[in-house]
Design goal:
Structural class: alpha+beta
Radius of gyration: 27 Å
CATH topology of one domain: Rossmann fold
Number of helices: 13
Distance between the termini: 61 Å
Helix content: 25-40%
CATH architecture of one domain: 3-Layer(aba) Sandwich
Shape: globular
Strand content: 15-25%
Number of strands: 22
Length: 540
């Protein structure tokens, strides 16, 4: 079976028996040009600790002298290796910020400069693994000959599956230049040989599924698994989902200490294909049979309220002519020319991109190159990338405003006069807000409500790294000019009262409303105020 083939490459020996491997720990290396020593690019010799170390202080450290694994406390600054008896500081590694420091001679250089000069991807090697026995006990151990031989076997077998491995190049772009600087030229280079083999075996099995709907379902499932199984993932820690996925911070960040998870997955592992089948596909099927709504009950608890006699049985269509008979219509096309009849829609709900932020169409090629191999109806000759000309994403505020206005204008055309345009947005730059306001007004809309809503988890890496973190998005509710039931005026004193009321509610609930969130809310209500004033072509 497909599962057995993949799982056979994630095995280890423990007390003279075979056990499953949950994770392999890797490190990139380079050769010091002054003393010719190999430099493993450890940020710290601590490679594993609990996600909540103050509660569970145990951690795992790799000895810089003999590569033995030592159990320590996460805050230890001095430890003695149990194998070679040498003393070292586990908090230190061979990397400081963007530089490597040779532990032998002290030579220091920016890693990206070294890589550019060598014009090659940095080599990497396994140094540790986490295994699980039949009783569910987890253990750390260093890499042995069995591990190396098993990986070599995967490398050899990969040659039989090359037709299922994407060979597409990584094109230059706002969000792809970062890894191009590290000499990654093709999307397949972001995986190691065992990962490529595992996904090739999966791809072959998916292509052999006769039912096209089921084939597409498993193609999407595999696509989601890719993000958690590549050499840009890292270890998040025990006590939580262990795999920090590729796009955890929405960029292609070169990872010096990659984590290789078990692609198929086993019990207690994170990011595996089988786990996602249970948590995504089976949960979706259960929801389809027993749909529910989340409502806040007693003690502010979120409870499920099941909808009786409300199974989701309807089928969708991509044919506009079949939309009139009540079938949900799904179109994949330019939102500025959607083709629906005028005044035929009650609600437009959307989430526009931020003009100078993540270019998702560039990043989406990471998934698209694999999907093209899965026999799901993609025209490989014409659809070479998810990038398209004219997409709203733009780092120029004027062009962003014009393209966003085109989409909003089309929304106005298809909306009934009583309909609403609702979208979410936040930004840290003034021109980002000005562009959105001009697009709204230029399309013939007026802002009737501005509602804060939680955007990302507070533990998000991108939020924690921000100088002025933003935890909340704003929901903008817009109505056609002349059809806004909220009234004809929005005085400045009313705007100030609305803002203060929201601040008070947040404080009363004990919610974290940062300085960045307050700024976002001020911008949002400023846009609503300008909208009622009817000001045109606002500038910074």
């Amino acid at each position: 079976k497909c599962s057995d083939r993949i799982k056979s490459y994630y095995k280890a020996t423990y007390e003279d028996r075979l056990v499953d491997v949950l994770y392999y720990f890797w490190v990139k290396t380079l050769t010091c040009e002054k003393c010719n020593a190999e430099v493993p690019l450890y940020k710290s010799s601590i490679f594993s600790k609990n996600a909540y170390p103050s509660r569970k202080p145990e951690a795992q450290s790799i000895c810089p002298y003999c590569n033995e694994i030592n159990e320590i406390k996460y805050s230890d600054k001095v430890t003695t290796c149990r194998h070679c008896n040498k003393t070292y500081n586990p908090q230190k590694g061979n990397v400081e910020r963007a530089d490597y420091i040779c532990p032998g001679c002290g030579n220091r250089e920016r890693i990206v400069d070294y890589v550019r000069r060598k014009e090659a991807i940095l080599p990497q090697r396994m140094y540790a693994k986490m295994i699980i026995d039949d009783a569910g006990n987890k253990y750390y151990s260093k890499i042995d000959d069995f591990d190396l031989e098993l990986y070599a076997k995967a490398e050899d077998e990969l040659s039989q599956y090359l037709s299922f491995i994407p060979d597409d190049p990584i094109h230059e772009g706002i969000n792809t230049n970062q890894i191009l600087n590290y000499q990654y030229k093709r999307w397949s280079e972001m995986f190691n040989s065992r990962q490529l083999l595992s996904f090739a075996i999966l791809s072959k099995a998916i292509c052999e599924i006769k039912d096209s709907d089921i084939r597409r379902l498993f193609a999407v499932l595999m696509s989601g698994t890719l993000e958690f199984n590549n050499m840009f993932c890292s270890f998040k820690g025990e006590g939580t989902g262990a795999v920090r996925p590729l796009f955890h911070n929405h960029i292609l960040k070169n990872e010096l200490m990659p984590l290789e998870a078990n692609v198929w997955g086993v019990k207690s592992s994170s990011g595996g294909f089988s786990a996602f089948f249970e948590t995504r596909v089976l949960r979706a099927m259960e929801y389809k049979e027993n749909p529910f709504e989340i409502k806040i009950g007693d003690n502010d608890r979120a409870d499920r309220h099941y909808l009786r006699n409300c199974k989701i049985k309807t089928s969708t269509t991509t044919n506009l002519e079949e939309w009139d008979v009540g079938r949900p219509l799904i179109l994949c096309k330019d939102s500025s020319e959607i083709g629906l009849p005028s005044k035929s829609v009650d609600l437009v709900l959307t989430d526009p991109p931020f003009f100078d932020n993540v270019n998702y169409s560039e990043l989406a090629d990471f998934f698209f190159v694999w999907l093209k191999k899965l026999n799901i109806g993609i025209d490989k000759a014409t659809e070479v990338s998810t990038r398209v000309s004219g997409e709203v994403q733009d780092d120029d505020p004027i062009r962003f405003e014009e393209k966003l206005c085109d989409v909003f204008r089309e929304s106005n055309r298809v909306l009934k006069d009583t309909g609403s345009l609702i979208f979410t947005y936040h930004h840290s730059r003034v021109d980002g807000w000005v562009s959105v306001y001009n697009a709204i007004h230029g399309a013939g809309f007026q802002i009737s409500q501005v509602i804060p809503i939680k955007a990302e988890m507070s533990v998000s890496v991108s939020i924690q790294a921000a100088k002025m973190p933003i935890n909340y998005n704003l929901v903008f509710v817009c109505r056609k000019i002349g059809f806004n039931s909220s009234g004809k005026a929005y005085p400045i004193d009313e705007a100030i009262k609305d803002i203060n009321d929201i601040f008070q509610k947040m404080n009363d609930k004990g919610l974290n409303f940062s300085k960045g969130d307050r700024t976002v809310l001020l911008y949002g209500h400023a846009l609503k105020y300008l909208s009622f004033k009817g000001l045109r072509n606002v500038t910074t």
